[in-house]
Amino acid sequence: MFFYDIINYMAKIRKTIRSSQPIAQIMTGKVPVVSARSTIGEIEKILLKKTRFFDSINYVYVVNQEKVLAGVISIKEIFRRQKDTLVARVMIKNIFSLRPGQSGRGGINRFKKKSQSGASGGPEWLFFGGGFE
Are residues 98 and 87 in the same domain? Predict the structure, then answer.
């Protein structure tokens, strides 16, 4: 049953991303979120203590003081760094994000245009997200 659920969820994601439906249909707020002032060691503690509460832990989302997305860091990158490293020094900062009411297809097209524009500093990472609490 579990495998079947995963297949259905992935199909729903593909369909939503390719359609004009709002991306909110596949979004989750149950992800690890830390402050840009956090250290790698602090993130490791959070992940070990709260993993069961997250829908996804492929990335840790980094927010500024106003709780606005400032960057992301992969789990792989977390385990490659020293525990006293500040997240703000190693996170991916150049992010293109979509809001809940935006469509997946429209967002993907805008992301592609920005990525292929040839301008330096184009987005490195695409984020489907809303606000963080």
Answer: no
pLDDT confidence of residue 68: 83
CB 91 within 8 Å of CB 36: yes
Distance (Å, rounded) from C-alpha 12 to C-alpha 105? 14
Q: Which residue has the higher pLDDT, 28 or 79?
A: 79
d(CA 20, CA 32): 28
Q: Are residues 44 and 88 in the same domain?
A: yes
Query: pTM of whole model > 0.70?
Result: no
Structure-token pair, residue 85: 């490293």
Instruction: Tell me which residue range forms the domain holding 59.
Output: 31-93
Quote the CA–CA distance of 129 and 100 in Å, as a whole number. Answer: 7
Work out the number of other CB atoms within 10 angstroms of the CB of residue 78.
20
**Residue 5 pLDDT exceeds 50:** yes
